[in-house]
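FAQ
Q: What does a multi-component entry look like?
A: The components come first, one per line:
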Amino acid sequence: MAMTTGNVISQYCQVEDFSSQYGGENSISYTATNLSNESNIYPRYGDYTHACVLRTYGPWWKLAPSAPSPFKRTPPSFTSEDFIDISFHSKVYPSKLEIYETYNPGAVVRILACDCSPQEALERKIRWVTLWSGPPDQARQETRIFSPPLKPCPFPTNFLRLEFCHSKLYYYTELDAVKLHGTKSPPKNQCPIHDNSHSSSVDDDTKFSISSLCCCPNNRSAADDTLKWDKLSLEDKMSHMTLDGPPAVHKKDNGYFDSLPGEVIQLILSYLDVPSLCAASMTSTLFFHHCYDPLQYTEINLQPHWPLVSDSSLEYLESRCRHLQRLNLSWCGGYSQITTQGFRSFIKECSKELTCLVLGCCKFVNSECIQIIASSCNNLLELDLQCCPTESAGFLQIMKLSSLQRLNLYRTQIDIHSIVAIIRSCAELEHLNLGSCQMINSFDDVATELGKNCKNLKSLDFWRARTISDRGLEALGNNCPLLEEIELGWCPEIRSGNSGNCIVELIQKCRYLKKLFLCANRSVSDKELNALAQHSKYLEQLDILGTREVSINGVRRVLDNCKKLTFLDVSFCANVDFAFVEVCKTEYPHVNIKKSFQDS
Amino acid sequence: MLPAWAVGRVVARAFVSGINYSGSGNRENKSLVEDQKLSSIQLNAAACGYSKSFSSAQIFKKYIFGDDSCFIARHRLGDVIGVADGVGGWRAYGVDPSQFAHSLMRTCERLVSEGHFRPESPEAIIAASYSELMENKVPLLGSSTACVVSLFREEKTIYTANLGDSGFLLIRNGNVVHRSEEQTHYFNTPFQLAVAPPMQEGLVLSDSPESAQRTSFSVEEGDIIVVGTDGLFDNMSEGMILEHLKTLKDHKPENIKRTARTLAKTARELSFDPDYMSPFAQQAQEHGIECKGGKPDDITVILACVQLGDTFS
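Then the predicted structure of the entire assembly, as tokens:
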């Protein structure tokens, strides 16, 4: 499908991997793979089924009761929330990338290129280079082709990652296609770059982090080459903090740092992200001791540094992580960069105090890894395995982690047998995400077991649970009165209608509801809205997208009575017109009212 | 007799549709430049149709003829064509009946052109398309018949799935070698796929995509396939269609288009003839309903010729 004009090859992408999607796993509507091939929406602007759509947008999911607490040591420059890996037919030196954004543009924040194809990547050490990065943008709400200036890429590539931050967006971002232009040989104005990992590189960030993450304390001389450079970087980093006085690193001694109490140095160092901390350890003996203090490594977030994290980085960190409590390895170790062996030895050493383990989209997580977690991390309270490719039966081991309070299994292959066993042994569960778990064939049974065992349940995500019906909702309503958040979007078997009253009963019984998502439930009517107006005084977020049955009076009653409401999605509600929404926006300025559109 | 302005409209409409139907086929061809050329069997198809109403000031949309809709899609594995007839009764609910049929056909087209199909199971294309309708954020209501014919290139076989009273003819050497059977609940009430409002579920006729009638035939170069909605078959007998197809001298794309257009036009003229004893009227009489004349209805015709041609490797 490649087209050649002169020396420039232009080609559309194929989607290889992604971290979330709006559409169902077996669908072709609103799925990430819709980014593949030619544009078929542009230049139209709107909410179309054949667009690529991610799962969330805006601040709303972070404000919900289910939101996990953020990690310390996250560099403020890292804003990415989702990614899509795309491949192309031929390897080229990229000259231009065109991203067709057909709804709420501005979410792309970083573009990386890999030095080998997805297939080759499984066999060797791979290298990612940032071609472009920028802050999230609240662009004008109109269709556009986004084509940021790319840094020269030191190698030909046919494998890119796009990273997205949609927290500033008004509504879901939708993408149509990605077109890569490039040449087979390096462009003439680009100096030939020796593709040697120890030479100076266009990608300074990467270089800095590689050397620091992999610096071994017993081999200081190896680090000397990069030491001088690292010092400068450290100085840069330090100057960003509110640290008075001249930086100490230029002096032979430790400057004023000697006279500071150890606790103050520790506090200062606690603001550094992990690569900076590693780099700081190389500056002086004083810093070395402080930077290697295991108390600096109680909470580490390696997600921002995912291109650099491999077995060896884990190995180097291992000795410092004896008191590790919270670990985020999301997006790390893809394409065999972390192996089961590497993960095993790290977890064996560092799991004693581990309470929170986040492994979103970690492609290395197999049944064995889950077994290692289950047998080593006895104190684990939070486990996030979203999008991990583990096979169904592998999840059963989680049942050993009986003190779990938070479990995220979004887009995994977990089956009914495993999840029921987990629920039966984890009575403390407060937050459970089973969104898009398509192997679970009876969500009613899941809900019934939750009702029996998990009385403290606060949030439940059943996004696209095809088999939850009245029976499951009844069990939840009767037994989990503390529920604050329920995601029931795209659950087609929940029928309100003439006969059923299940949603109303749930609303009556769960009085602390802060978030209720009922998108694409075609049977939601004024009956449910009246119940919310009457009973849900804490309600903050409500989504009733895609029902023909609600009237503007019902919507108005919710707006009038749910005083804490800040978010309301009435998209594609046939009887709630744009004129009414505009009126409500002025009458209820504290509520973000969403109404999406699709021109036919 | 139709007023002059209406005739003018017929011509205009036919012209617009003539431009339209070349859509997907040709575009695919362009992107094949790099692919290895391989002579293999393919369907060369053209669609044309008429809405029964001229008075309603509806905007002409691609592949929509009144409440009817159709698609022509190509893929490396096979060529697939199909028609759907939206059930008009939904107007009473304030629902545009063409929307359901149109969405169904557009989704079929997407499933095929993006490779989410197996050419040997057209019923699965209908089923997948139907379930994708529920995946749309827009709450669709309506019902529709559907007839999909799929050419499995490798096997040189067509596989068909027909739900309701649309249908197809397979013609070889001027003879009908196969004709689809209508599926009706009772006279003039075909099987149909439906999405009902939540309050009316169970009260609305709704057949599952699996109940589609399935057949398969091996095809030869030169075979002609006529796929149409009931607007065609209720107004033209097999014999008349065969007679008409004699005007198709060769299987050049422009001739296929012209013949599809004149076939639809003939059916349309007959449908407004009050004295013509149409197949529909004959059938009605068999059911004890006194009736004569054509049956004014939306008419959609896809004419497809089985040919050897350059196609996907």
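Q: Is there any commentary attached?
A: Sometimes. For this entry: The CA atoms of residues 141 and 280 of chain B lie 28 Å apart.
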